[in-house]
Amino acid sequence: MWSIPVFCWFFITLFLMRKGCELRAAFILAAIIWGCLVTLFTECLGYFHLLTAGGLVLCWGAATTVVLLSNFKLKKQWRTWGGYPFSALESGLIGGVALICLATFLTAIISPPNNWDSMIYHMSRVLHWLQNRSVDHYPTHILRQIEMNPWAEFAITTFQSLSGGDRFANLVQWFSMMGSLVGTSLIAAQLGGNRRSQLFAAVVTATVPMGILQASSTQNDYVVAFWLVCLAWAGLHFMKQRELKWAGVIGAAIGLAVLSKGTAYFYAFPFIVWFTAFAVRRLAPRQVAFSALCIVVPFILLNAPHYQRNYKVFSNPLTSGEDSYTIENISAGTLFSNLLRNTAMQLSSPSDNLNKWIGEGVEKLHECLHIDLNDPKTTWADMKFSIVGGNLMRNEDYSGNFLHVLLAFSVLLTLIIGASFRKVEAAVLFYTCAVAAGFLLYCLVLKWQPWGNRLMLPLLVLGAPVTGVVVGKCWKSELVICTALALLMAALPWAFSNSTRPLVHVSGRSGVTFPLLTVDRNLLYFASNRRQGVNLYKQYVNIARDIRQKKATRIGLVLSGGSWEYPLWMLIKQWNPAVVRIEQVEVGNQSRFAGTSDFKPDYYVRLD
Q1: Alpha-carbon distance 348 to 456, whole Å?
Q2: Strands (E), 46-104
Q3: Cis before residue 85, ω within 30 degrees of 0?
Q4: Who contacts 3 (Cβ-Cβ below 8 Å, separation ≥6)?
Q5: Which of 334-343, 409-418, 566-575 is the least confident region?
Q6: What dihedral do alpha carbons 88, 93, 94, 95 form, nearest 10°?
Q7: pLDDT grade, residue 79 (50/70/90)?
Q8: Is the dihedral of CA 432, 435, 438, 443 positive or negative?
Q9: CA separation for the pair 196, 11 (Å, rounded)
Q10: DSSP notation for 200-243
Q11: φ, ψ for residue 541, nearest 5 deg
């Protein structure tokens, strides 16, 4: 049954191609439509407490049938991506990208979800929703489970319910990577790039180390990156064709991006300003009003239910207010500090000496300017700034993107050189400014966080089309080829030796390694907890055994804010099919009044 939503997306793509869409454009449009359907079905079924495998089969089956029948009624108007056949060199680059995609796919399909945050809240909320048959808020010790933007988990819930397990959970991010490859190549074409520029944009996207690592996880940064790519692509179409339908696509794309993650607000805002400025200058007032309506309505329809749930529990549509991620005093000094620290983190590399040199440089610059490097008003939870290295370079929470940042600086330098302005369209400069403004907003508003590299993944993906166009048009062919090959070769360790999901074992300097092909699947849930994973696994197994011995059926969980709830659920359910309900109890925060209060457990689990 899990394949029904996949067939639905496939038939939507086929329908759009038969309507005359080019293959890549049909792929992107079908993904946006599919993303809206995921939201519609999840919210509607959840509202009536019918979020079950049967309800999802009924909805997706009906949608697939409608699209399939619509295909039969259309005459063929096929369009393809012209310019075939590929040269030997182009085929080699495509093969390198395909190898990375294959490695990340195998990692995603073999490994269970084991990202740190996913064990705490990304995947835990999915199990609560399926148990409650609704996405309504529920009492929880971990408020991130209910307050955070939920679209990625909506998609995971669909496949988890229809497949009966989490085998396909990682593929939501993997599909987002595939969509981003397609989308960035399309944007490069819209910005005036030739086929070489489009291919190079795809190579840049495919080889971002943080992107490779996240493509096989249940985080949501690649999901939001993909929807932002869709937003940029639709906006460029809107400015070129000036049709209201593209305003609707913009609204759906930004709605899905925001519904996936809050960082979308910062990264999407400059693009919306750009598109709005264009509309005000080039369109009649009536057209501007209708375009704004076409953008706002899909955005509200997609996000209003989640806003309403948050407001009901927290009296705030966006956040519970439990954790403060925003800078407390915005100034030129705090902006400079965050720009410096966030850029330095992206420059982290496997070389400990280089990391130490960069870290010391950042510290000395702060001292010279009399800025506190670890000011608690600009630093999350009193963390201390440092440049990571070692095994953390292959971790989806911390990995740097050294080569891609250097490449970005090279592209900016190329753009600054006067002669280059005549080789690229003005849209490239505006697009570059929109991406840069998103980075400035991120640094201006959000506190520095040690895992900030993953939050900035959308910026690297959005910047790939500019890199493709500038490099393809302004650099010599030999340099373009060498750069592309270097990026592909350098990406292989991240593709095959993810620190928590390695296809190929590489000995680390600390901790325990869990190779995918030789370790029990249940133990893999604990792989990101490198020092305590094995012990935690044994403790959870003992809990599951004790529940079976005592024949308990209603389990009450008392958790801390960082408890690994998801793997405990999975082990309890495996060892105890008779368990009928698992809920968090003795909740003392704002969510304690959410849901029903008649649950009486016959077994308690307390986790520090």
Answers
A1: 14
A2: none
A3: yes
A4: none
A5: 409-418
A6: 90
A7: low
A8: negative
A9: 30
A10: HHHHHHHT-HHHHHHTTSS-SHHHHHHHHHHHHHHHHHHHHH--
A11: -65, -40
Amino acid at 77: Q
Interacting residues of 323 by C-beta distance below 8 A, sequence separation 6+: 381
| HSE-CB for 184 with a 13 A CA cutoff | 30
In the chain, the largest separation of any two C-alpha atoms, in whole Å, equals 77
Q: Which residues pair with 556 in a beta bridge?
A: 583, 604
In the chain, where are the structural domains located?
Answer: 3-314, 332-469, 521-606
Over residues 261-294, the pLDDT tens digits come to: 999 999 999 999 999 999 999 999 999 999 999 9
pLDDT digits 0-9 by tens, 429-451: 999 999 999 999 999 999 999 99
Spatial distance between the Cα atoms of 488 and 22, rounded to a whole number of angstroms:
27
List, for residues 125-178, the tens digit of each pLDDT value.
999 999 999 999 999 999 999 999 999 999 999 999 999 999 999 999 999 999
Q: Which pLDDT value is given to residue 76?
A: 60
3-state SS assignment for residue 121: helix
How far apart CA 224 and CA 257 sit, in angstroms, is 5
Indicate the burial class of 209 (C-beta count within 10 angstroms; 0-12, 13-18, 19 or more).
buried
What DSSP state is assigned to residue 52? S
* Nearest alpha-carbon partner for 522 in 539, 497, 546, 503: 539
195 token code pair:
């086929």
Q: How far apart are CA 412 and CA 408, in angstroms?
A: 6
Q: Is the pLDDT of residue 529 over 90?
A: no
Residues 418, 422, 426, 427, CA torsion sign? negative
Question: Tokens 């369109």 appear where?
Answer: 283
CA proximity to 301, closest of 342, 337, 261, 256:
256
Q: Which 8-state DSSP code applies to residue 448?
A: B
Query: CA 410 to CA 529: how far, in whole Å?
Result: 37
